[in-house]
Amino acid sequence: MTPLLNTEAFEKAKAFLNSFPAGIYRLRLTEPRCVDFVSEGLCAITGYTREELLRLTPEGVPAFVCPSDRERISVEFAVLERMAESAELEYGYIHKKKGPRLALDRVLTVKEEGGTVWGYCHFMEQRDGSRNERRLLSENEALRDSERLMRLVAEHSNRAVYSLDLASGALRSIDLTKSDLNLLPSFCRGLDRPDFQGCVLEESRAQLKAVLADIYSGKPEGETRLRITASNGEPRWFEVRYSLIPRDGEAPASALISFLDISDTHERELAYARYKQSVDSNSKENVLYYEADLDNDRIEKTGGSHLDLIPLKEGQPYSEAVERLRELYFSEADAQRAAKLFSRERLIEQFAAGVSKCKAEFPAVFKDGATHWIHCGKQMVADPYSKHIKVFTSVIDISEEKERESESRRLAEHDGMTGLYNRATGERLINETLAGGRRCALLMIDLDDLKNINDSLGHMEGDRALEGIAEAMRAHFRPGDILCRSGGDEFIALLADIQSKAGLRGAINAFLKKVSELRVGSKNEARVRCSIGVSFSFSDGSDFDTLYRQADLALYHVKRGGKNSFAFYTPEMERKDFKYQPPTRTTLADVHWQENSDYGKLLMALSALYPLIISANLTKNSYYMLEYDSFASHAAADYGNFDELIDTGASTFHPEDRASFLNAFSRQCLFEAHARGERSVTHEGRQMGDDGVYRWTRTHVVFASENEDVCQITFANNIEDEKNTQREALRMARLLEQITSRSFEYVCVLYTDTGEYELFTNVGSNSHSVPSRADFNEVTAEIRDIFVVEEEREEYYNKAALETVVRRMEETGGSYSYRYRLSDGEREAAFYYCEPTHSKLIMTVKKL
Fold first, then answer.
1. How much is the pTM?
2. Are β-strands 250-261 and 235-247 bridged in parallel, bridged antiparallel, or unpaired?
3. What pLDDT digit, counting tens, does each position of 480-528 carry?
4. Strands 566-568 and 530-537
5. Which candidate in 373, 568, 687, 773 could, as Cys together with 697 as Cys, close a disulfide (CB 3.0–4.6 Å)?
6. Which helix (H) or strand (E) holds 731?
7. Are the CB atoms for 32 and 14 separated by under 8 Å?
8. Is 286 exposed, middle or buried (0-12, 13-18, 19+ CB in 10 A)?
9. How many Å apart are CA 838 and CA 842, to the nearest integer?
């Protein structure tokens, strides 16, 4: 039998239990044991007072149990506590006045949420002889009646409970609830009396009559809902439940009737019903609609105009349905987003956190092959009946709305005449690209002589010229480049991920040529031309305003220098006395450079290996810079006088390397090398980059010929890493030379980042038992405490601790040594850097 009575209900039922003849007591079976309730019937049966019956023996059983049975009953109680089962226990007990008797305990166990197990014990004395059998049967009947009552009271716990006498109709209150929770009106006669029926609102009186008819017809139990005017005058909804109290062989004479205020729950149920009705009525307007129980992971209802195109069935697991829909209708990226938004686990977490709604928009491809934009909305509601989380999902086709939005956005972001981005949109997109730290070039393109076209040919032809440049930009530049009309006759292009400055020159020249092929006028008599200023971004510190100003300055100098050309921004342009000179086109680069020529392809390939490439004509004392990068200074102009280039370049080298640079690359030295028949000249030196840091640079000059002129191509690249490797190899070679030329007791590798060392070699006998790998400071401390002579221990540790070693290495710039005395003689320890990062040192110990 599964007990229904919990501790709270038991407390409220004590008054009833004391009125029954059976002996009842409650024993805490979980240690420490105790008796906390004894009925008046148990006192009458055993002859003891309530205080005496509350005592337990050392074995943890009631004191009235015979000593010979106490240990056995204690074990029985322990088994009941562990198994949480019910049982009948027979044992001897001592009546206070009559002496030893035989007793039967029927124990019902209840395990509370905290784990405590209680035993509800129904005590009955057993007697021999047929004369007492009837009395025993009567007591058993009383016991059964008390058990029935306890179970009924338990079923009505935490409610306002009344006892109804069926014969008289009298209603007696049983105060099982706190008075501040009892909102029932005050009445004391019966449910069928006018004073109670007057409190029941008209809408519930039919339910009241129906439940009264069930009670008096003998129906064992039932319930209904009544709307009653509460004691505070407010209409409240109450759940009314009744249970007839059965009697063996006879009709019930009374009933328990309980009331529970369910106003809040009732309102939630009504709201839930209204919500479902509203959703159901609108579900046909959706592409797809379904309801699901998240707790049970089950689709409960489906609908929608496209249901025939979507494999969704009632009874299908929700998680399986979501996965299937993602696979069928979404791209991989959108499918992942949908899974994250609408997974069963995530929805349950959101609802627990107080979030009841979520929505998203996706492009989806239906079975008919068409792509539709859909709006997916989910509303989660707690089912007031099952307490489960219900999710209502509606999918609406918003393709037309998306098309209207897209068109509105396009009109807002683009220039009405050319179709390119407008200034505001272009600036926003350019700043977003620059924030990524990509290497970009900003081109400011200005239509030459637009005013003359408008004045001589008319504004329509001027518009044709603008549209022609826009079309040339779309056709010439890459799809990912940002193209916009800044206003009037000005356009902007941002080209991201520029790999080669030489390649960019070729692309711009090709664009200028394409624009020059455009014609306007009624007879196509006027040629269209443009000028271009270019600025560069090499890091994430650049922004639109800076690049725009620099490109605008370069464009200004192109316009002053004759138009129909381009210029890269250089810092010299900021000077007031700067005079722009168009390319002289006297170098190898200008004569032979064609984007698709073999020579051009060769230089394009070499630009990936050599960030600095310069073509020069030594005879004509001119040069043309094809490519440069930030590892070297941009102090030189893109083209100009070769002697000036060498002087400027020398100023960027370390003072110790300037003379060697000039001796290698001055024009006179190069002429002499060419006359000796040398094919190339190479120089290595430390050159300052744009960031102010000197780095090792290797520069090659390769001689070529152009007619009778002496020409050359210069290639340069950064070899700082190579030099570091060489220095490290040289340092290690010298160190190994020292190790092999001398006999050391120990050689260790010391890792400064972890504080550990590793024994590299041990020529001696390792008489100090130094571990092969351990914490450096710990082993140093052990050597100090055990082997260093006492008067030098403190001084030794001050010299040998890792912190001291690292500090002294930094102060001396690469080496550190000290001497110390051990019990068996004097030693010398020396430390050397093992790698440029200084995270690894070599330590040698030599016995003197």
1. 0.38
2. antiparallel
3. 899 999 988 999 999 988 866 767 877 888 898 889 889 998 888 788 9
4. parallel
5. 687
6. helix 720-741
7. no
8. buried
9. 10
